[in-house]
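Write out the 3D structure for:
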Amino acid sequence: MADKTDTKGGGIGSWWSRWRQRQGSPVRLNLTDPPAPSLSPREAPPASPVQPAPNVALDTPKPYIRFQNPNGAPLFLTHPVKFLPGRYQQNVIQPGSHDPLGNPGIWANDMEAKGFADWIDDPDAGLFSRKLYVVEDALGAKGRIGGALYAVGAVLQIGRNVVIYQLDNLDTGGYIVYGFPRDLVDAVGAMARYLGRVGEKKEQLSTAALGSMADRILERFPTNDAALFNKGVALISEQRFAKAHEYFEQALSRNSNDQLTILYDAAALAGMRQHHSAMAQFAKADSISEEWVRKNIGMVGILPKHLSVSVSELMRADPGNQRYAELWSKYFPSIEIGK
């Protein structure tokens, strides 16, 4: 069940703008990367016709491949693709797409794909025996299809949702080419795309899923500030304020003036009942840019609930000091302190 952390206040919209960058049913790949019919080659001369490697039967309909892990990992599908040689103008595929011989072009869904074949993962050198953080981590993974031994041999194309891998037949020297779900092999991109879908209201935010994605990134990239921030957001939703504060502190050590992280840290500190520190963080965000705080404070939906307690406690301890009340009323004029 998705958590009820507000998607506006969960930092999602702002995080996505700052990125400038189940076990269950199989994932049916939606290859949005191939060119639409409207795409047209540039005027540059096309590449030489693709030359198939030995033992590749290009005219035989190829199956989807079901990846099965004997240890019980989720099942997913990969899709056969076809190569379109030439130089294309499009924005969903990273530059450098090519065939196994280096000819430039793009890979698109093989619409004649039929049936299914199973990838049986090698227990020692298989895809599921390694952790996958970046697309290159899958290279060299071995498994069997129809009894033949294959290895992930090269990255031929990186698209918005799909990575095209060459699968080398180690028995014959031939190869086949398939599209893999990019989220499987791209930890950083998986979180970015997830938050994009949430921001576009195509998916409901699950802070448990967000925290898991952040953990995956931090295993490989422990100083990734976006992962540190979103791990903190996930922990705040669980009211684990002290732990959330630790992640926000790490993120702020890399970018001390990130106002969104500062505001979330203020909420975490207030939840920890460190009221002076909470208000100091709130005041810091205000001092950096009052205009920014006014415009974006609504994204931190948990802030008023926790920060109002801090203001109330500090005013009770020092009734003559009105600076906390004034700072509060600047941004929350319609919310009574302590409510």
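Confidence is low (pLDDT under 50) at residues 1-58.
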